[in-house]
Design a protein that fits this description.
- There is one protein chain.
- This protein is α+β, with helices and mostly antiparallel strands.
- Helix content is 20%, strand content 45%.
- The protein has three helices and eleven strands, in the order ββββββββαβββαα.
- The strands form three sheets. A four-stranded mixed β-sheet has the order 8-4-10-9, sandwiched between helices. Strands 5, 6, 7 and 11 form a four-stranded antiparallel β-sheet that branches. A three-stranded antiparallel β-sheet has the order 1-2-3, with no helix packed on it.
């Protein structure tokens, strides 16, 4: 059975700095019309960093949840920027850590029901301290947490961010 939905028309409802909202008219596989609300987003890159048995995190207030959460360093991919370059840039800007090399470990669809966003998850190697350069209006702090403690924070629900959970559990699975 062909499960493909065909786009008939795209209508932009909102164009913003970090996302656009569209309302698409589509045809279902059986030919019946339907609508899809889609958030366009340029995607993001995230970086898992481990040094001396500790994992690097940022703590940032996330307005939709009204709380400060733990995440691995991450950020939006700028227009024309490669995901790998975004990962290296965000790590240095947010945490003052420069990576000699990053290797892609995952590419995830954070919420495929309504967004086409892709998040690329990298593992950093060859870490060197530099200086933090936060964007205007960006407020966060970084910290290193023992890897086993971070895993416990996932298990007890203290860390809920999907990209962070995936990166941590993958590293545990790899036995590294």
């Amino acid at each position: 059975m062909d499960l493909t939905e065909k786009t008939v028309n795209k209508k932009y409802i909102y164009n913003g700095k970090i996302l656009n909202l569209r309302l698409d008219d589509i045809l279902l596989p059986d030919g019946k019309p339907a609508k899809r609300e889609i958030i366009e987003h340029s995607g993001g890159s995230a970086v898992y960093c481990e040094k001396d048995g500790k994992v690097l995190f940022v703590r940032q207030f996330r307005y939709p949840y009204k709380k400060v959460i733990y995440e691995i360093p991450a950020g939006k991919i700028n227009a024309g920027e490669k995901p790998e370059a975004a990962a290296i840039r965000e790590l240095e800007e947010e945490c003052g850590v420069k990576a000699e090399k990053v290797t892609e470990t995952f590419k995830i669809y954070p919420s495929p029901g309504y967004t086409e966003e892709i998040i690329y998850i990298y593992k950093a190697e060859g870490l060197k301290d530099t200086s933090v350069r936060l964007d205007d209006g960006e407020y966060l702090s970084s910290c290193w947490i023992e890897k086993e403690e971070a895993i416990k924070m996932v298990e007890n629900g203290e860390i809920k961010d999907a990209k962070t959970v995936i990166a941590l559990l993958n590293e545990r699975k790899q036995g590294k």
